[in-house]
Amino acid sequence: MAEEINKDATNEGLTDQEKNWELFSVLGMRWSETRKLSDEDKEFLLEKVEAVKQQMRAQAFMQGQG
Questions:
Q1: Residue 5: inside a domain, yes or no?
Q2: Residue 53: which residues within 8 A CB-CB, separation 6 or more?
Q3: What is the C-alpha to C-alpha distance for residues 10 and 31, in angstroms, rounded to an integer?
Q4: Is there a domain that residue 16 lies in?
Q5: How far apart are CA 46 and CA 19, in angstroms?
Q6: Does residue 55 belong to any structural domain of this protein?
Q7: Residue 29 phi, psi dihedral angles, 5° rounding
Q8: Range of the domain at 17
Q9: Number of separate domains in the chain
């Protein structure tokens, strides 16, 4: 799981399938919906994926501290 959290969803080297997986696994979108997104919407949502993953990292860090 840590590898998935540490992967940068906004990395331009990701394939469309990898980007769709980020949207599917982190935001809980349906796979079919991820394929219908415009490039602009997909990039916006991938930024949101990174925000969610940042919160997940911080939460994991805090749990490790306690």
A1: no
A2: 5, 9, 26
A3: 18
A4: yes
A5: 7
A6: yes
A7: -75, 155
A8: 12-65
A9: 1
Q: pLDDT digits over 40-60, tens only?
A: 999 999 999 999 999 998 998
pTM attached to this predicted model: 0.82
8-state DSSP, 30: -
Helix %, strand %, coil % for the chain, to 5?
A: 75, 0, 25
What confidence tens digit (pLDDT) does each residue in 13-46 have? 999 999 999 999 999 999 999 999 999 999 999 9
Round to whole Å and give the CA distance between 38 and 45.
11
In terms of Cα–Cα distance, which of 12, 16, 45 is closest to 28? Answer: 45
pLDDT of res. 21 = 95
